[in-house]
Amino acid sequence: MIFNSNEFLFFFLPVTLTVYFLLNRYRLTLASKSWLVAASLFFYSWWDVRYLPLILASIAFNYALGTVLGKHPDGRRKGAILLFGAAANLALLGYYKYFNFFISNVNGLLDSGIPVQRIILPLGISFFTFTQIAYLVDSYKGTAREYDLLNYGLFVTFFPHLLAGPIIHHKDMMPQFASSRKKVLNYKNMATGLLLLSIGLFKKVVIADRLSMWANTGFGGDAPLNMLSAWYTSLSYTFQIYFDFSGYTDMALGASLMFNIKLPINFNSPYKALNIQDFWRRWHITLSRFLRDYIYIPLGGNKSGPNVTYVNLMVTFLLGGLWHGAGWTFILWGGLHGTAIVVHRIWHGHNIRMPKPLAWLLTFNFVNIAWVFFRAKTMQDAHRVLAGMFGLNGLMLPAGFKKLMDALSIKGVEYGNWRTIFDGTGDPSFFVAAALVFCLLARNSNETAARFTPDKKTLAFALLLTFIALTSMGKVYEFLYFNF
After folding, report:
1. Which one of the listed residues 324, 337, 348, 383 is annotated catalytic?
2. Is 350 a catalytic residue?
3. pLDDT of the residue at 402
4. Phi, psi angle pair for 111, to nearest 5°
5. How far is the C-alpha of 58 from the C-alpha of 155, rounded, in Å?
6. pLDDT score of 406 more than 70
7. Dmax of the chain from CA atoms?
8. Of 255, 246, 264, 244, which Cα lies nearest the Cα of 192?
9. CB–CB of 399/416 below 8 Å?
10. pLDDT at 289
11. Minimal CA–CA distance to 135: which of 156, 157, 164?
């Protein structure tokens, strides 16, 4: 089940909320907790019930291991238990997500002909795996202990974060579930949650899904792209993934807030960033924290001099790229960001400053170009789009520009219908321009929620967004991060 579906909006969410607060009203705390776990497992099973035993087994394994870690005295054996638990989780993730990628590369390298398996990636496995690895590490450190299986099951399966994050920590979430004040219906939280739901639904259905048409057309074809069509292809995806992921995050935080549970902020206007480090402080914030706390710092962080620091940064970002998907395009995307972070560290170390508009322009264009590798299915697809973006396939301007700029014809510039590739899907110019303005000038959802006061004006705004989104819903498209 996904947030932008009628089943979720008009059946699952209202029924789950109603039963949960009714049970709490009669102080049936255990029953309300059990109901929320059962509802979350139903939510997960809606996609494919065959993977329900997988997540249940993962929960039981990590709960048992976390209990052992919480009670075990410090020492090498405790470290070995943690290592075993992390390796087991990564092995499960590796089989479902990377097994065929590994086999394909072995076949290509050795011409071995090993058959690939028909493996379907279970939804949310990257997220609930990282969530539980973090729990094991925190149990090892003594900062998180859970001796109740039902509580642990609720921590892992709570449906707003289950399929695409944010990546949560036990010590941040369980005190909220345990608080008696959180079990009483809070009308301010309910109203704020509904506002975030409406904003997220609008972002996904009206903006991201529309931009996906131009991104899919540009990346999915075989014909060379001229410069304008290539840039519109890349920018369409750059804004699609922004509004798709931002929309999911808004809906996740909104749905959770309706249960009086505050999930960690995971998205904070990343396209306003003035450098690549600032971008990663704003984009997928909880993943950035996980990579920092559980990979970069254990590798040594910045404690062993600049050269080792740069290596640690590159390893962290390469693994971050691989986490997103089993493909060399994802690894290269991670490597590009790792390289950019290293360059930024060197640049910052020399205390060199640049004007903010230039800093934004360089950061945004780097992120946009890097997204080409993230989106492309193959290196050939990425090269095809990038070749167009850098003018290797020529520049075609709209026919109306010929009178004004005819002198450019001697430079090889052509005039005509530059957007032929988008015929049938309309002109992306307005949507791309509007998306850029929105990203740079509009107040983000975190700020909107913080300043929110229920009134008729806000209610009308939320209802308008919801009405537009619902009337725009045709085919239901999954959120992009379900693939990661």
Report:
1. 324
2. no
3. 58
4. 50, 45
5. 13
6. no
7. 81
8. 255
9. yes
10. 93
11. 156
- Rounded Cα distance between 132 and 85, Å, is 9
Which tokens in the block code for residue 144?
């998180």
Please confirm whether the linkage preceding 166 is cis (ω < 30° from 0).
yes
List the structure tokens of 16.
Answer: 């789950």
Alpha-carbon span 41 to 35, nearest angstrom? 10
- Cα–Cα distance for residue pair 382/6, rounded to 1 Å: 35
158: left (phi over 0), alpha (psi -120 to 50) or beta: beta
What tokens appear for 329 in the block?
Answer: 């395009």
Q: Which residues of 215-242 are buried (b: 16+ CB within 10 A; e: fewer)?
A: bbbbbeeeeebbbbbbbbbbbbbbbbbb
* Cα pseudo-dihedral 292, 293, 295, 297, rounded to 10: 90
Q: Burial of 375 by CB count in 10 Å (0-12 exposed, 13-18 middle, 19+ buried)? A: buried
Q: E-assigned strands of 101-167?
A: none
First to last CA, the chain: 16
Measured between alpha carbons, how far is 215 from 234 in angstroms, rounded to an integer?
7
Instruction: Compute CA 392 distance to the chain's CA centroid, rounded to the nearest angstrom.
Output: 32
Question: 396 in helix, strand or coil?
Answer: strand
Which DSSP state fits 284? Answer: S
Measure the CA angle with vertex 126, ends 120 and 128; round to 5°: 110
Judged against a pLDDT cut of 80, whether residue 397 lies above it is answered with: no
Provide Rg for the chain, Cα atoms.
Answer: 24
**Phi/psi of residue 305, nearest 5 degrees:** 95, 165
Residue 373 pLDDT greater than 90, yes or no:
yes
pLDDT per residue as tens digits for the range 310-331: 999 999 999 999 999 889 999 9
What is the predicted pLDDT for the residue at 418? 63
Residue 169, pLDDT > 70, answer yes
Nearest by Cα to 321 from 333, 312, 313 = 333
Q: How far is C-alpha 261 from the geometric centre of its chain's CA atoms? A: 20
CA-CA-CA-CA torsion sign (36, 42, 45, 47): negative
- The domain ranges of the chain are 36-185, 189-483
